[in-house]
């Protein structure tokens, strides 16, 4: 997959053939996104077009909130990995800026997509809106786009069984965020089509887990969505920095998400302990390595214990529960 970064005012991209794109933010790359992407891929191949994705960075929600929000389901590298798995040939990342924000819908379609990016087919969900003040819709833009040689194709949004009392609910990143935030992890994983994961570079902490006999690989939750604080059954993979591919089989693990109140923690981290690390033939030193931690099951809320000894006793109990869960899988 070729990654192209483009901003308003840049020269046209150097894609050697006309392109069909799916457009959106694709946070999560969930089942609904996959439906849209697969539809675009099929039509691209049928029409001898390149298959691409147009997305935005920063996420518009970040742009309007001055990069001060923590809501993302995936980091950039994991989104790229998921899109590449689907078969995206070109990932075009448009910088979301004041200039882009002020483009009219017609300017966005004509000046940017058609003239600059060589797009001749655009696939989007029925609710996709674009252009200044989000005035552009699929329906009111079809006549103009056809006149300039850009075909817009609407893809029906993927739906699931009722989540809120309605007959059907559209699968969206927002609905998945709501499920995760409210502790409904298994349902969220179903709508994602895979287990939700947190990824990043392992940082060196205070090594208190090692002192307790349970060394952990620590990731800063940063701009990730925050699920309920507590202990989760998880599994972990190590990722190669250069290829973005995993380098080992899944390792059974257990994780704590939160502020570690027993040891007066401040930052929100996910601390992951690989169960029986020495039996998996993997280098135990994970510092500065990129890892992926998938969340499988919530075990208990985060608790402030009266002592480190009480904390250690509870960790033993939690780890035994996680071992049992993994043994049944």
Overall description:
- The chain is α/β, with parallel strands linked by helices.
- The protein has three domains: 2-157, HUPs (Rossmann fold); 159-188, no CATH class; 195-327, Elongation Factor Tu (Ef-tu), domain 3.
- The chain has ten helices and 16 strands.
- The chain has helices spanning 31-46, 60-64, 76-86, 98-101, 105-116, 138-148, 173-181, 185-192, 208-211, 308-327, and strands spanning 2-6, 19-23, 50-57, 90-95, 119-125, 129-130, 136-137, 151-155, 159-161, 168-170, 197-201, 217-220, 230-239, 251-258, 269-274, 290-301.
- A six-stranded parallel β-sheet has the order 1-4-3-2-5-8, with helices on both faces.
- A hairpin with a 6-residue loop joins strand 9 and strand 10 (168-170).
- The protein is elongated.
Number of strands: 16
What sort of overall outline do the alpha carbons produce when their principal axes are compared? elongated
Classification by helices and strands: alpha/beta
Name the average pLDDT: 89
Our measurement of the CA-to-CA distance between the termini, rounded to an integer number of angstroms, reads 33 Å
Strand share of the residues?
A: 25-35%
Query: Uncertain runs with pLDDT below 50, 5 residues or more?
Result: none
Largest sheet: 6 strands, parallel
Question: CATH fold name of the largest domain, please?
Answer: Rossmann fold
* Helix share, percent: 25-40%
CATH top-level class of the largest domain: Alpha Beta
Q: SSE string, helix = H, strand = E? A: EEHEHHEHHEEEHEEEHHEHEEEEEH
How many helices? The count is: 10
Q: Provide the CATH architecture of the largest domain.
A: 3-Layer(aba) Sandwich
Into how many domains do the coordinates divide?
A: 3
Main sheet: strand order: 1-4-3-2-5-8
Whole-angstrom Rg: 22 Å
CATH homologous superfamily annotation of the largest domain: HUPs
